[in-house]
Amino acid sequence: MTDQTTPDHTAPAQAGGRAMAGLQPLTLVLAGVVVLADQATKALVRAQLPLHESVTVIPGLLELTHVRNTGAAFGILNAADFPYKAAVIALVATIALASIAIYTARLSPHQSLARLGLALILGGAAGNLIDRVTAGFVLDFVDFHWGDYHFWAFNVADAAITVGVVGMLLDMVRTGDSRQPAAGSGQ
After folding, report:
1. Given the residues 38, 140, 143, 171, the one annotated as active site
2. Which of 57, 138, 151, 161 has its CA 20 to 30 A from that of 94?
3. Are 156 and 127 in contact (CB under 8 A)?
4. Out of 38, 131, 143, 158, which one is annotated catalytic?
5. pLDDT at residue 142 in the model
């Protein structure tokens, strides 16, 4: 018989296993769809578009351009060169991916918007991690620009992460509003 008030010191060691067990099938399916779509589009770009070449989709606004991001998000550290750079960035991405999985598994079932957002983030992070581990860089290809100003090139994984973050923020706002006492309730 165990004492319910005694802290469980094995919890941190088991957190990763429980996180995967706590992920709902729909979360895993959505994350998997993001990974498949991301990897399929990147394979298509690799096969059809030489490195640094572009194809105009919407003149003056959108091109598909095959580029490599050897840095972190938004090209941070792209120009930096240090020993084991690809391994360090992949390790940081792996830790982030595990943290996202653990957090997702701990959400309450009624937080569907947060679960959706985190599934998109999880799939996007996994898609980019596959690139980092297998190639040492992330393939980006969606190139929006306005005149001479180019936004950061991105891919399906990055788009999923961005939409996922917006979903998380909307869930926070919605959850925050539902926790506010009703006007005139005396609380």
Report:
1. 140
2. 151
3. yes
4. 158
5. 96
Rounded Cα distance, 156 and 163, in Å: 11
154: left (phi > 0), else alpha (psi -120 to 50), else beta? beta
Identity of residue 17: G
Residue whose structure tokens are 């957090």: 103
CA dist list (Å): 161 to 60, 126, 167: 26, 10, 10
Q: In the chain, which stretches have pLDDT less than 70?
A: 1-23, 71-86, 89, 176-187
Tell me which DSSP letter residue 154 carries.
B
158 is catalytic: yes
Task: Look at residue 140 and give its three-state secondary structure.
Answer: strand
The Cα 113–Cα 165 span in angstroms is 10
Instruction: Measure the CA–CA gap between 54 and 65, rounded to whole angstroms.
Output: 4
Q: Parallel, antiparallel, or unpaired: how do β-strands 138-146 and 62-69 relate?
A: antiparallel
Nearest C-alpha neighbor of 128 from the set 96, 82, 83: 96
Active site residue 3: no
- Determine the pLDDT at residue 76: 54
Cβ-based burial of 80 (10 A; exposed 0-12, middle 13-18, buried ≥19): exposed
Cβ-based neighbours of 161, under 8 Å, separated by 6 or more: 120, 121, 124, 125
In this predicted structure, what is the pLDDT of residue 3? 47
What's the residue count for the chain? Answer: 187
